[in-house]
Design a protein that fits this description.
The chain is built from two helices and 52 strands. It has 705 residues and is an all-beta fold. The chain folds into six domains: 83 residues, Immunoglobulin-like (Sandwich), CATH 2.60.40; 97 residues, Immunoglobulin-like; 111 residues, Cadherins (Immunoglobulin-like), CATH 2.60.40.60; 107 residues, Cadherins (Immunoglobulin-like, Sandwich); 101 residues, Cadherins (Immunoglobulin-like), CATH 2.60.40.60; 100 residues, Immunoglobulin-like, CATH 2.60.40. Strands 45, 47, 50, 51 and 52 form a five-stranded mixed beta sheet that branches. It has a four-stranded mixed beta sheet with strand order 2-9-8-5, with no helix packed on it. The relative contact order is 0.05. It is found in: Cell membrane; Cytoplasm. This is Cadherin-13. It is a lipid-anchor; GPI-anchor. Keywords: Calcium, Cell adhesion, Cell membrane, Cleavage on pair of basic residues, Cytoplasm, Glycoprotein, GPI-anchor, Lipoprotein, Membrane, Metal-binding, Repeat, Signal. GO terms for molecular function: beta-catenin binding; cadherin binding; calcium ion binding.
Length: 705
């Protein structure tokens, strides 16, 4: 393997010290392979002031420049591209050198052959007279400006010819960044560049005559901005919160931290490395976690035993994470973020009663909570691994007890849901177990402390007597004689061990019809029972009675009596309406339709029988005709004079025996003119048919002594 030959393309024109690379363009032959640690060529940089703090940067990361200027290969590579660019910077100067790489079959000693290098050299393959070599400019250059960055060469020697530069950065926005000396072709930049804003400029250069007419070109001029490490890494996706289950194996991945660097991702300027700067708290180990320096993955590094949530000061850890560019070198820029890691609970601690036996006392007949059972659980109170579930597993055959969890305290609230009876059992023993909502992990089981006994003592209470049955029902006919026996009630005292006596009294008797013997409980009537009374609803009369024991203080029981009353035909029918009007010249002599009603029930009501009392006189004036079982029609047999008439009518129900109501229908005969009825004078002309008949009968009797 041979060292590449080097061809000098440009050199200093005199012996005076010119700051920068003393040779700016190199030509090397592409070998079969670049070998690791192989020196390629020597670069000479001189800032004319001692090269203090000299630093080199190479565009290809597979190469580096040593302090003495040697270009060295960092690893075996077969392809390095068509060009390398080396940027040098010291306290007093900076400059760029270009290294062109060509194949072995290309001529080494002819400058025109260099101009035939293809695409990625940025030198177009053409036979024009303009040579526009790509220009590389470091970003963030310091003043003074304008600063020369390159030169365009033309082989044409036309008198008065001028260079003209155009494109984005010249006469297009952002305007005025670059300009060209129209005579010498020297290209200069007018201000500092920012690669993160614009990384490449594609300009065009042409040669014009004195009149401004293009005589050569345009030719493309590429300007690339070389990245400087001027952007710190940034964490943009926060907040960063990760979770890991307690007891997780060493090496468990918790979360990934990712930072962003705006610098060139193909350079070390954006090559990030991660590190944990601080962990809070520092117990049980100051190094609970590790971060992969390249990927940013945070993993656990302590044993599962130390990752125990219940023994930690707090289940929350905060890590200050640093991201540093330049591959983590000391010269790199840094950015930080805080990662919060929460140690999640798993159900590795069963709940345990605070004592093996609990005591409770409850009065008989009372319901509600009688005791709160307390438990301890070391798991996270915000999870199902802490929340308790209680079960009565023995001693509750009658389902008199229930237990529920208090969601705030996790206590078991034991309640009586069915009243207890001292006389049946004065003591109860319950066996209760407690579990978690979530299942325990496989290697943990519920132990003896997860069950407890509750001893319940029932206190005797003076209970009120109880009626048997309650309510009590009986059926009686209405109108039974006063003093009749309705029923004898029976009440017993649940306090069988106290041997108490019972006395009775009336509590509620809305109609005042009843009385009760205070000693034997016999209920009798003090008034007539009336089924038609407003105190009777649906044929049923209701009264309440008390049974009072002899305890101190006495206890009372209430009994309800329902008396169903059977109907008796004790109400005469009523007739409606009782007033009718008719015109004295009426053509329709059907005066009125009469209806009858009865407060009694069938068969003591309809069908009703309607009749007129006997009519006296030379001719009959009206008649009555049955329409149906409850209605009849009164019809005049001739027109009558204007007057008031009382028509005697009797209506009889169908009861056994039947009852008859004799009543009168008042009939007003009025004058009617122009559809108006005038009954005003009928009172003065009032004629009672009964009086007329009586008068006629009296005269008849006087005529025949």
């Amino acid at each position: 393997f041979f060292f590449p030959q080097v061809l000098l393309l440009a050199c200093a024109e005199d012996l005076a010290c010119v700051p920068g690379f003393q040779q700016k363009v190199f030509y090397i032959e592409q070998p079969f392979e670049f070998t690791e640690d192989q020196p390629v060529l020597n670069l000479e940089f001189d800032d004319c002031k001692g090269n203090n703090k000299l630093n080199f940067e190479v565009s290809n990361p597979d190469f580096k420049v040593e302090r003495d200027g040697s270009l060295v290969v960092l690893k075996n590579i077969s392809e390095a591209g068509r060009a390398l660019f080396v940027h040098a910077r010291s306290e007093h100067a900076e400059d760029m050198a270009e290294i062109l790489i060509v194949g072995a079959n290309e001529k080494h000693d002819a400058l025109k052959e260099i101009f035939k290098i293809e695409g990625n050299l940025g030198i177009p393959r053409q036979k024009r007279a303009i040579l526009a070599t790509p220009i590389l400019i470091p970003e963030n250059q310091r003043p003074p400006f304008p600063r020369s960055v390159g030169k365009v060469i033309s082989s044409e020697g036309t008198e008065g010819a001028k260079f003209r530069l155009s494109g984005k950065g010249v006469d297009q926005d952002p305007k005025g960044i670059f300009r060209i000396n129209e005579i010498s072709g020297e290209v200069s930049v007018t201000r500092a560049l920012d690669r993160e804003v614009i990384a490449n400029y594609e300009l065009e250069v042409e040669v014009t005559d004195i009149s401004g007419k293009t005589i050569d070109g345009p030719v493309r001029l590429d300007i690339s901005v070389i990245d400087q490490n001027d952007n710190r890494p940034m964490f943009k996706e926060g907040p960063y919160v990760g979770h890991v289950m307690e007891g997780s194996p060493t090496g468990t991945t918790v979360m990934r931290m990712t930072a962003f660097d705006a610098d060139d991702s193909s350079t070390d300027n954006a090559l990030l490395r991660y590190n944990i700067l601080k962990q809070t708290p520092t117990k049980p180990s100051p190094n609970m976690f590790y971060i992969d320096p390249e990927k940013g993955d945070i993993v656990t590094v302590v044993s599962p035993v130390l990752l125990d949530r219940e023994t930690m000061e707090t289940p929350k850890y905060e890590l200050v994470i640093e991201a540093k560019d330049m591959g983590g070198l000391d010269v790199g820029l840094t950015g930080t973020a805080t990662a919060t890691i929460l140690i999640d609970d798993k159900n590795d601690h069963p709940p345990e009663f605070t004592k093996k036996e609990f005591q409770a006392t409850v009065k008989e007949g009372v319901t509600g909570v009688i005791v709160n059972l307390t438990v301890g659980d070391r798991d996270d109170p915000a999870t199902g691994a802490w929340r308790a579930v209680y079960t009565i597993i023995n001693g509750n055959p009658g389902q008199s007890f229930e237990i529920h969890t208090n969601p705030q305290t996790n206590e078991g609230m034991l309640s009586v849901v069915k009243p207890l009876d001292y006389e049946i059992s004065a003591f109860h023993t319950l066996l209760i177990k407690v579990e978690n909502e979530d299942p325990l992990i496989p290697d943990i089981a519920y132990g003896p402390s997860s069950t407890a006994t509750v001893q319940i003592t029932v206190e005797d209470v003076n209970e009120g007597p109880v009626f048997h049955p309650n309510p009590m029902t009986v059926t009686k006919q209405e109108n039974i004689p006063i003093g009749s026996v309705v029923l004898t009630v029976n009440a017993t005292d649940p306090d069988t061990l106290q041997h108490q006596t019972i006395r009775y009294s009336v509590y509620k008797d809305p109609a005042g019809w009843l009385e009760i013997n205070p000693t034997n409980g016999t209920i009798g009537t003090t008034a007539i029972l009336d089924r038609e009374s407003p105190y009777v609803q649906n044929n049923k009369y209701t009264a309440l009675f008390l049974a009072i024991d002899s305890g101190n203080p006495p206890a009372t029981g209430t009994g309800t009596l329902h008396i169903t009353l059977e109907d008796v035909n004790d109400n005469v029918p009523s007739l409606y309406p009782t007033l009718a009007k008719v015109c004295d010249d009426a053509k329709d002599l059907r005066v009125v339709v009469l209806g009858a009603s009865d407060k009694d029930l069938h068969p003591n009501t309809d069908p009703f029988k309607f009749e007129l009392s006997k009519q006296s006189g030379p001719e009959k004036l009206w008649r009555i005709t049955k329409i149906n079982n409850t209605h009849a029609q009164v019809i005049l047999l001739q027109n009558l004079k204007k007057a008031n008439y009382n028509i005697p009518i009797s209506v009889t129900d169908s009861g056994k025996p039947p009852l008859t109501n004799n009543t009168e229908l008042k009939l007003q005969v009025c004058s009617c003119k122009k559809s108006k009825m005038d009954c005003s004078a009928t009172d003065a002309l009032h004629i009672s048919m009964t009086l007329i008949l009586l008068s006629l009968f009296s005269l008849f009797c006087k005529s025949f002594p």
